[in-house]
């Protein structure tokens, strides 16, 4: 019964956390019994069961409960099979979505060697625009996961393809993540390659693409600033933020100290 399997998947993460906390009593229970169930349900025939399995897997990865060997030998091979060119359309869309979500939770080596080649293939998927759109929407996260060298060597050419895609939604998604992609590259690549590419988006024939590009203009320009002097940095959620300068921190500390002194003086006066 699919509802039973779905409910089971929802209970896996709390059981796994309990087993981890009680590991001396159950040293291998999770790896022997629960992890195989999670992997098996990633290919379940029922859509709701698969989604519950995917959510359970992400929680387990987030809690660092899945071993590196299980990730490389059990999870990644399943996702690569599901995202293969001849895979079922629905399975492929789900697989690329889970690959993009889990990239930030895995080691750079695992992502670069096991998932990045398939991600690059999926960026050029001519059959399903939904697959390309997921790739475009998560492009910045993948760049951040693999670092500058792999981004410039493998991902930037794919980013150019997506920025000129015939589907305007793809180009809009690229405009929205442009700052995150730019932040991962060298100043020279930003100047010589990404700047002309951004101009093409800001001059796009579709007004939704142009609007998204104009909204990303300020964040994109900020990536040209020196982080040490400008105080700009990218948070874990991919948003741009400003780190307070040492002068501001000292000023706040002095103000707090003065407030304490004034409060003490007032108390003594009373």
UniProtKB/TrEMBL annotation:
InterPro entries in alphabetical order: ARM-like (IPR011989), ARM-type_fold (IPR016024), HEAT (IPR000357), HEAT_type_2 (IPR021133), PP2A_Regulatory_Subunit_A (IPR051023)
HEAT repeats: 115-154
Gene Ontology cellular component list: cytoplasm
Keyword field contains Repeat: yes
The keyword Repeat is annotated on this UniProt entry: yes
A GO MF term: protein phosphatase regulator activity
Gene3D superfamilies: Leucine-rich Repeat Variant
Record key words, sorted: Repeat
SUPFAM superfamilies: ARM repeat
A matching Pfam family: HEAT
Name of this protein: PP4R1 phosphatase
């Amino acid at each position: 019964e699919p509802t039973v399997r779905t409910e089971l998947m929802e209970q896996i993460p709390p059981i796994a956390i309990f087993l981890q906390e009680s590991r001396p009593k159950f040293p291998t229970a999770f790896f022997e019994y629960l992890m195989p169930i999670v992997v098996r349900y990633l290919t379940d025939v029922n859509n709701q069961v698969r989604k519950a399995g995917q959510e359970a897997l992400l929680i387990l990865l987030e809690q660092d409960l899945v071993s590196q060997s299980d990730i490389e030998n059990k999870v990644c091979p399943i996702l690569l099979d599901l995202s293969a060119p001849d895979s079922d359309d629905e399975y492929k869309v789900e697989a690329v979505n889970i690959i993009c979500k889990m990239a930030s939770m895995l080691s750079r080596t695992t992502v670069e060697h096991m998932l990045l080649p398939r991600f690059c293939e999926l960026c050029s998927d001519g059959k399903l625009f939904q697959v390309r759109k997921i790739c475009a929407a998560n492009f910045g996260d993948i760049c951040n996961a693999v670092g500058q060298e792999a981004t410039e060597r493998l991902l930037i050419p794919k980013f150019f393809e997506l920025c000129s895609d015939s589907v305007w939604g793809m180009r809009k998604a690229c405009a929205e993540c442009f700052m995150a992609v730019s932040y991962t590259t060298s100043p020279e690549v930003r100047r010589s390659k990404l700047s002309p590419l951004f101009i093409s988006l800001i001059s796009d024939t579709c007004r939704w693409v142009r609007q998204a590009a104009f909204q990303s203009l300020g964040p994109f320009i900020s990536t040209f600033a020196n982080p040490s002097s400008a105080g700009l940095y990218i948070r874990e959620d991919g948003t741009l933020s400003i780190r307070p300068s040492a002068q501001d921190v000292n000023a706040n500390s002095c103000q707090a100290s003065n407030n304490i002194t004034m409060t003490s003086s007032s108390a003594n006066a009373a």
